[in-house]
From TrEMBL:
The lineage of its organism: Bacteria, Pseudomonadati, Pseudomonadota, Gammaproteobacteria, Alteromonadales. GO terms for molecular function: 4 iron, 4 sulfur cluster binding; epoxyqueuosine reductase activity; metal ion binding. Catalyzes the conversion of epoxyqueuosine (oQ) to queuosine (Q), which is a hypermodified base found in the wobble positions of tRNA(Asp), tRNA(Asn), tRNA(His) and tRNA(Tyr). The gene is queH. It comes from Idiomarina loihiensis (strain ATCC BAA-735 / DSM 15497 / L2-TR). One of its GO terms (biological process) is tRNA queuosine(34) biosynthetic process. Disulfide bonds join C187-C189. This is Epoxyqueuosine reductase QueH.
Length: 218
């Protein structure tokens, strides 16, 4: 269902640019952001760089769903490397950090640094990310990482727009159900999978099964 005019939000990039590089972690989180920018007439390209996602089967499922939706909207999709070895090196020593802790900061830094480098080398002046639309994420933490990533590149900006505004988080779920996206049940990394499974077992639930859960309208 399309957003009506009363629900619409006027989007304006920090530079007035009409071409944004959007770092995407998955289809459910990016769906609302993609539709909102498309409705606003902002041209954007998806940049998929998520070496944190584990195992590789989960990584491929999330990437393929994102590609599927990008193709539906006619949006360019940049498929970056799955250099998980470098990610493990980056977060070494932070294995037991909690969600939203220092490990997450390092993870966001790594992903945004690569996004900013690609933007700098390919003529973009604005980058942003769909990560902040999730209520499980710390918006300030994400924005700080984004601004830090663009700092080395004069003229490159990180767009700190709050994608949760005016029902954005609810629309994220609505779009996910409509498109029947794959529904991941943990943030993405092996440590979040470990912690979620520990919580599930403690609460009498089965371990997460990769590739089983999909959004439905039921």
């Amino acid at each position: 269902m399309a957003r009506n005019k009363k629900e619409s939000i006027v989007l304006e990039t920090p530079t007035g640019s009409d071409h944004v590089l959007l770092h995407s972690c998955c289809a459910p989180c990016s769906g609302e952001v993609m539709e909102r920018m498309a409705e606003a007439g902002i041209k954007f390209t998806i940049f998929f760089y998520n070496p944190n996602i584990h195992p590789e089967k989960e990584y491929l499922l999330r990437k393929e769903e994102n590609i599927r939706f990008a193709e539906k909207l006619g949006v360019d999709f940049i498929d970056c490397d799955y250099d998980s070895k470098n990610w493990f090196e980056r977060v070494k020593g932070l294995e037991w950090e909690p969600e939203r802790g220092e490990r997450c900061t390092e993870c966001f830094d790594m992903r945004f640094e690569r996004t900013a480098l690609y933007a700098h080398e390919n003529g973009f002046d604005t980058i942003t990310s769909c990560l902040g639309i999730s209520r499980w994420k710390n918006m300030d933490q994400i924005n700080d990482c984004g601004k830090r990533a663009v700092a080395p590149y004069p003229g490159l900006h990180y767009w700190t727009f709050n994608w949760r505004k005016q029902g954005g988080a609810a629309r994220m779920i609505e779009i996910s159900k409509r498109e029947r996206f794959y529904q991941q049940e943990y943030c993405g990394c092996v440590y979040s999978l470990r912690d979620m499974n520990r919580w599930r077992l403690k609460n009498g639930r089965d371990r997460i099964e990769i590739g089983v859960q999909y959004y439905t309208n039921e």
